[in-house]
Amino acid sequence: MQAHPIDSWQHKHDFTVMEEHGERRTWQVLVLTAVTMLVEVIAGIAYGSMALLADGWHMGTHVAAFMITIVAYRYTKRHANSTDYAFGPGKVGVLSGFASAIVLLGVALFMLFESIQRLMSPQQIHFNEAMLVAALGLAVNIASAFLLRDSHGHHDHHGTHEDHHHHDHNLKAAYLHVLADALTSVLAIGALFFGKYLGWHWLDPLIGIAGAAIIGRWAYTLLRECGSVLLDGSIDEKVLAAIRKTIEEVPDVKITDIHVWRVGPADFAAILSIVTHRPQKIEYYKGLLADFRELTHVTVEVNVCEEETCPLNQPI
After folding, report:
1. Counting beta carbons within 10 angstroms of the beta carbon of residue 296, is it exposed (0 to 12), middle (13 to 18) or buried (19 or more)?
2. Average pLDDT, whole number, for the chain?
3. Fewer CB within 10 Å of terminal CB in the chain, N or C?
4. pTM above 0.70, yes or no
5. 80: CB partners within 8 A, 6+ apart
6. In the predicted structure, residue 273 carries a pLDDT above the cut 90
7. What domains lie within the chain, and their CATH numbers?
8. What is the pLDDT of residue 160?
């Protein structure tokens, strides 16, 4: 069917980034993590190791987080062209990242509580068995981190202003979960080693507290980053200033209102209100912003100043 001429003036509202690669890698990491979780929980019960049991349940929370990640990918794909959302479901991944950050924060609090309990009431640990299983967990976490890093760390969507702002928060959350697991495995191995050979049994819960603090910091950073996007936080101040400068370099043009916010992993919407004595076509002003490839949904309002005394060269 031939497109109606009016279609050329309609905006595109699909701001999703179909991370097929990321979804596939997340599935692989989910399976690896679930298997390792079962091994650690069973080993923890068999060897009476609270450390392994706690780490196993800790990985269980990450399995749940990865499932949230996959559901977000599927939901975004299914509703990519839905008209139920003003700017499409591009923020579903960010919402998933926010939810996963809350799970991460819960994991940190759980680790802190368990570590304090063990510091106050030391428990016998089967060091050899615990170190072996912890080493297995570390190997799985390293493999998982490389799988997710390949997807998380190599986005090159536009190649301009937005390169350093393009994040798949969904995938980033999964990546941080894996790093959190790897960190706890390293700390657990170190604590078990010194506990066995130097008798420093207190080191195990102490390192657990340190690990909880680091994971809590990661969770807070992700919460703040995702929260800003969900609340329609503005684009970076430097980019905003560059947009304003580009428009106002045109003689007799002044921006009176500007809003730029993220609507997808790599896409921003912009609403600009300008005032001028000699208005041009809307396409002219949009064309001035062509180098800002991250601005994929631009609305320009042109106000005509009919008075010669309009202070267009001064702040309004």
Report:
1. buried
2. 75
3. N
4. no
5. 14, 16, 18, 88, 89
6. yes
7. 5-230 (1.20.1510.10), 237-304 (3.30.70.1350)
8. 42
